Amino acid sequence: MPRTVLIVDDERDANDLMAGLVQARNDRPVQVFDGGSVLEAVQRHEPELILLDVMLPDVDGYEVCARLKRRRATNLIPIVMVTALHAQDNRVRGVRVGANAYLTKPFTPAQLYEVMDRALAWRGEHMNRGTAGEIQFDIRSETDYLAELNDMLTDLYARTPLTERQVKDLKQAVMEMGSNAIEWGHRKNADLTLRIIYRIEPDNVTLIIQDQGPGFDPQHVPHAAQPDDPIAHLDVRNELGIREGGFGIMLARGLVDEFRYNDKGNEVTLVKRFESTGAVGLPEGD
């Protein structure tokens, strides 16, 4: 069955090019040429995917993306940001709602189709799993921006069945592990982007914190506190000339119901299960 793909680009040639490529896959393109018309087009055509240019004449693509991802009705529509901006000119300068994928112009048809397939697979996975919503945040690697994001997340937690105690636990766990990623994963390089994924599942809230660092062996962290001997690591830190501390990982483990690193050690998942059932979701609108 043909899928509806909304294409948002103010340059007609680029918009027509993407529309032709979408149509060549037997999908149905819907073309929009400014950011202000996107929400109406989404409501009218109910697209399965949005190809969104960054540089629009009225509302930039990042703001359009943020509006769609913060709405309950449009949160699970995958968004691919299509931009001519180079990575070095496009660094996150604060807190930004992230898209599902990014594609830099010029691109080949194969590159476009590959990123479309990944975005559609993301939607299918979450629809099958019953996910109520997911928002990806990209932030500059500074603790002030991490704290700003944590406040935004707290507002989202309030729309779930999490108790006040659970919200406090999750907020502290995010701050601990986000700070750890900035300090150790990024070595305090503020230009590196920290990604935090907020996901509402049927029975829990899941937070995934991803850094761009080389990672580490999560099974061997001698400078971090361990449950069986919480202070032995202090001697190691002293020998290495590292400031006192190292309790963040152990503390975060105790604040959530599930805590796990990926094999590479540059992604940590925090899960907090609901104590009771209730309405779960995102705001209806801005």
How would you characterize the overall build of this protein?
There is one protein chain. The strands form two sheets. A six-stranded antiparallel beta sheet has the order 5-7-8-9-11-10. A five-stranded parallel beta sheet has the order 2-1-3-4-6, sandwiched between helices. The longest helix has 22 residues, at 164-185. Helix 5 (143-157) runs antiparallel to helix 6 (164-185) and helix 6 packs antiparallel against helix 8. The two termini are 32 Å apart. The protein has eight helices and eleven strands. Helices cover 36% and strands 22% of the residues. The chain folds into two domains: 4-129, 3-Layer(aba) Sandwich (Rossmann fold); 133-273, Histidine kinase-like ATPase, C-terminal domain (Heat Shock Protein 90). The protein is α/β, with parallel strands linked by helices. Strand 1, helix 1 and strand 2 form a beta-alpha-beta unit. The model has no long low-confidence stretch (mean pLDDT 87).
